[in-house]
Fold MFS transporter.
Amino acid sequence: MNKKAQLPLQTLNLVVGFMVWVLISSLMPFITEDIAVTSNQIAWLTTIPVILGSILRIPIGYFTNLFGSRILFICSFILLLFPVFLISIADSFADLLIGGFLIGIGGAVFSVGVTSLPKYYPKERHGVVNGIYGAGNIGTALTAFMAPVIATNWGWTFTVQLYLGILALFIMANFFLGDKKETKEKTPIIQQWKSVYRNEKLWVLCLFYFITFGSFVAFTVYLPNFLVNNFELDKVDAGLRTAGFIAIATFARPVGGWLADTFNPLVLLMYVFGGFTFAAMLLSFAPSIHLYATGCLVIAVCAGVGNGVVFKLVPTYFQKQSGIVNGVVAAVGGLGGFFPPLILTLLYQINGHYAIGFMALSQVALASFIIVLWMYFHSKISIASKLMKTTPLGIMVTNNRGKIISVNPAFSELTGFPLKEAIGNNPSMLKSGKQSKEFYDQMWQSLKEKGFWQGEIWNKRKQGDYYLEWLTIHAIKDDAGEVTQYAGFFSDVTSDNAKASAGNE
């Protein structure tokens, strides 16, 4: 029962963590009515929870493997009681700053589930499982929607205090329903880090999540105040629109995970970053509220799908180090939500608009699209290279003039000719003399007319003994239809009787 309960329990835990994480940004229009803060201080207060929520993801991912998700969620929610209470009685910028920094723990719990939940499911379901868990992002929408409504009727301090009860409820839920027998891993964190930090895929995934999750967090904390100040919407309306953005991004996340389980994740990321590029360019032109909403809608979908896809790729590339990698990628993604609001505020003070900031997002997204494109084709080349090295079939590739340009290990094993002797040579070095000129004329005629030839042929090894091989030759053509290379695939099909017959001749 405990194992079956982990996905819904941990998803709800993330909902609560994210509800707390955006508490200040969602209530900022109300807080500023009672506590005097400048526009710069508002930018810091809405982004400061992201700092701890990002940095803590690395050790929390590691400690989840060490102690299990039950202990990590219970400890995190107990620690959150203090900053939530401090915010509820705050009467100065300093109180809000300290409380805001510490509620970052609510965002850090994300690393718990993405490290724990894959232990309960087969690899082919990791994308959708992490996507469902990641849908706990909806907690930010719940706070963005509910907090302003409650604050309008009963005040923002009472609203914050309600979260103390929610945290206490989930401390008890994890105590009784959390899995006490979760599989633990005790590999030292330094050892795990040394095994991954030089892998360029780690940093590429960090960049991708920096954009996808970072944009989700940035828009979540940036939209409520921006919609009120720039489009003069009332606070509840701004909260509803922000909640809509969060809801779309949240529900798109499990869809992204499911799609990544079904299709090539790299192809999906091409669409994601293409969408980001378009939407960010649209927002950079400071459009009307309707076009602005369209741009935000595209970013919400791309962010949600991208978040799901990235965490499908983590266990694909890092099966044994997923704990530390999940933490690092999640931390960088969280930091992706810290810098944009501050940069946008600074640019607005300098230029009076946000165009440069959104244009920068479009260019970073475009660069990410190019990186994904490179990874996609590199993976295909890598697969082809592995196939050539591991297949038992001999493979020989020549240019259109008949010079050998590539062979695989099986070629050397079957023919006796090492790589150095084969490259630059002519396939005629294998001739046995057993085939007539007409045989080769028919072979070349088939290659010219059909683009391939297949059949049995006698050849001779370097050692001088004959063997019968089954050979398939393909003519490789360019876009203009001109032959650029020939690729031959062969296997030794010599029977004992054929060997004896060949020996007698």
Summary: The chain has two domains: 2-387, 391-504. The CA atoms of residues 111 and 197 lie 18 Å apart.
